[in-house]
Design goal:
The chain has 79 residues and is mostly helical. 82% of the residues lie in helices and 0% in strands. The chain contains 2 helices and no strands.
Length: 79
């Protein structure tokens, strides 16, 4: 098989594995945040901003991978 024929498979892996990793990361982080908030309720406010910042970073990595994958799928820079 030529490399160009494997492009849809590579794009699918970029988007799919990025989504799985992002979802797992957000889920683990949210569960740890809730656990920490239950143990020390006074730390809920300072931790909340950090949690939202990290969720944005995790989702940003997935969005960038999706954008690059869709760019490869439509523009096909390896042709």
């Amino acid at each position: 098989m030529e490399g160009i024929n494997l492009l849809p498979l590579a794009v699918g892996h970029m988007i799919g594995l990025g989504a799985i990793g992002s979802c797992l990361g957000v889920g683990v982080m949210a569960s740890k945040y809730l656990e920490a908030s239950a143990r020390q309720p006074e730390m809920m406010e300072p931790l909340q901003g950090k949690v939202f910042l990290l969720v944005g970073v995790l989702d940003g990595a997935f969005i960038i991978a999706t954008g690059i994958g869709l760019w490869f799928a439509t523009a096909n820079p390896f042709k």
